[in-house]
Amino acid sequence: MAIVRREFIKGGAIITAGVSLALSRVFRSRVRADIYGPLQADPAGILDLPEGFSYRILETALTDRMSDGYRVPGRPDGMACMVTSDGNWALMRNHEISLGDFANGPFDFGVSPPDESYHAAAPGGVTRLVVDPATGERISSNLVLVGTVRNCAGGPSPWGWMSCEENVSRRHGYVFLCDPNAETVQMPEPIPSFGRCYREAVAVDPRDAVTYMTEDRSDSCVYRFVPTSMARPFEGQLQAMRVTSGERFNLASGVSVGDRLSIDWVDINIPESPEPGDILRDTAQALGAAVLRRGEGIWFHDGSVYICSTTGGPISRGQVFRIDVDTDEIVLLTQSTNADRLDMPDNITVAWNGDVYMSEDGGGINLVRVLTADGEVCDFARESGISEICGICFSPDHRFLFMNLQEQGLTVVVSGPFERPEMPIGPDAGLTDAAVADASINDAAALDGSLMLDGSGAADASVAVPAADGCGCSVPGAPADNDALLVAAGVGAAAYLTSRGSRSASLRDDDRPSENESESSLQQHKETQLEDPNTGGD
Q1: What are φ and ψ of residue 349, in 5° steps?
Q2: Residue range 10-424+501-522, CATH number
Q3: pLDDT digits over 252-306, tens only?
Q4: What distance in Å separates the CA atoms of residue 101 and residue 321, rounded to the nearest whole number?
Q5: Going along 51-159, which residue ranges are E strands?
């Protein structure tokens, strides 16, 4: 069975609102104490927004039904808006559901998980909510991944949505690759080479396919995976970030806003599936890796990686860092000195103009805050004190901002007078049909002369990339060869997943719980919740 995914990698055409390829860093010159003005009270008591903005509920967890008949799972979390092969938008949505918490899962009482489930006792996973680009309205939704634990955040990539498990129970703690074009639940595709940890989120530099990752622990590290080649994005070297001025440098204290610290990266060599699973940061810190206090949201934009440290800083209420990939430096952009200004930033996304949108996971009323280019922190949205706000992401054209209200189980779309780029972003800025048709598997082979997809040394013609209706991966100012690189990376990922299909099946089946274990867990459905021995953040 080949997992080639021709539509999945169509011309490298899976794009996201936040995977900026080479936008110039355009900052507005005027100083803004507040972008949008004061927040207006919502009569419904759900979400306060600035004047001129409004929201619409797309789905409600546990009460609404998805198009495949399953109910919308509870605890929606990290999310990204990705363009599908038919030109619609797919919100790839995580669900942070603990082991045995069937009350929040997608299945009705008495319904067994499908054969595609990674772990029968784990009801977490990923759903796909398809949205009309013209109106922002819901078209359909369906289950894509199930059987995972505490899918907290993740990140978009040229190969699809990467969903992260914030849990290291046996056989868990992986990044899972999910297809934004999947209309039904799929077989799980873990990426063991990324390591196991309480992973929060990932961000991919599309210029070289390097994946950056955060970890939600009080003594976490920042990781990256450097692929052997663009054509083989999941084969390579796992590394951890080190501040060159000191071993195990503590980023949570003693750093001032504007400080720039030189960094390098240390190689981590551990088994792909170690037991116990929570040894990654200990291994990294033994090599001198820097320590971040609860690394959570991470986003790539214009040559930089933005990271939220949820409990870092002088009052332990949050910091935001930026890694300059090209200069190997990390700079502190802001940190909370007053919880009324910033209270535990979690998920993050970066707008086309460099404004950083942060959703809070504090102890009281949570907000979406905006960190502007001039260092000001402004309010954009406020919930009623019931829910963590998570999953914030822009649509490709920046007309809509999507988010989840986790405890209320709401996925909403916000529209209004967002500042939008003058240059085109999205499908209209993409490759032509002819350009995509020329980007075949041979482009991947050209990047790495040793590339062998079928073991013969020749490119496998069955993995050729068909023409597309316009990519969206290209924006003005991008390097001329960047789109071909993304196509090659997508093709290489598909070939890699095909070649390691037996490995994934082994990971999934060899340690599968016994029939008695599965049946015992299923009997708890809607009656009791199994205790998850591995909690997420501190």
Answers
A1: -145, 155
A2: 2.120.10.30
A3: 999 999 999 999 999 999 888 888 889 999 999 999 999 999 999 999 999 999 9
A4: 34
A5: 54-60, 76-83, 89-95, 124-131, 138-148, 151-157
